[in-house]
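Appendix B, example 12.
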Amino acid sequence: MNSSPITCKGHPMKKMLALATSVTLAGMFAAANPASAAVFVVAHPDDDILMMGANLLTDIKGNYKTVIIVVTAGDAANGAAPMAPGYTADIATSFNTGTTPYYRARLNARLNALATWIPASYPRPWQITTEAFGPYFGGVPTYVEKATLGNVIEYHINLPDQFEGNQYTTIENLNNTSGATGDYYAYDVTGKNVYNIHSLREIVRQIIKRNFPSEPNLVINYQEPAWRNASYQPVPRMDPSATDHIDHTAVGKMVKDAIAGVPAYYCMTEAIYYGYVQAANLPSPNFPNAINDQRLGYEALHQTLSTQGNIIPFHPGDAVSGGTWGTTQVYSPTITGQQRQRGAMDAFHTSFYGKQIWYGIPSTGPCNLGVNG
């Protein structure tokens, strides 16, 4: 592979390693040279930990300021209820078998996972607050949950993770809003905040502006939106038949549109993740040094889920369902006696350890967001 640095006003960014594919500007950001600051925008509470792990690990462990925006609650259509309506605890599709809502268990679990990567010099625990944006609707501010620990700041938008009556997901419906059909509105799973696509994009921009008002070396990490359908202007693919998770690409489109809406934001280098289809098909880990830490973080995530009483526990030797992926296998944890979440930590998911594939758009412009950026 040939390598060349991406620069912003002369500052070297993460190296771009050229891939032997037909994809223009294809590559992976080298974990050895992290950004001085980074933003990650993901659809679900474990997307970045599992599938953007090398970039995220390097930025956090390198003690660089890292801001993460988790767009959906990851509630799997269960909302904020302790148990999914119509299900009992012995039904495989009922995640909320305890008193803690599934989405809250997932958010707690990801914070536990990230804490394993945050330098130990920072005092624990996470500080949970809210941050006001707007007001956008009826003079009422939008209060976004915010978690802070050391060099990491995380925002939880908590939009529903579900298909709706028209068979589009909430994020897709927001993206599909047009002037001809009027705005589509969506409440978060708690019912406290309401969003349309305009307020969602603006909150993403405001989070960036408030946390990085004059950062000359900022990388924003998100998913390539082209992998859902042709209307998202697809780039050439390694596998022409591959498609990716709907909400991953829908969030990627939202972020790309948010950036395009403010020219000053071109000061950010865009690190665009190709998606789990491509990463899963990579022949071997391309970030071998990240495998152990990524595994420990993901196991810390699932250990938290198992202790909160809202998943059906599995033990070594049990035959377990792969859930969404339709597979059955024997559960064999790395940590002796550890329980697991149904449909995760299987061979498909753990195949992502150390595998990331990206392409990048170098930054241009003033590299200073300023108060009106």
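The chain has a mean pLDDT of 74. The radius of gyration is 20 Å.
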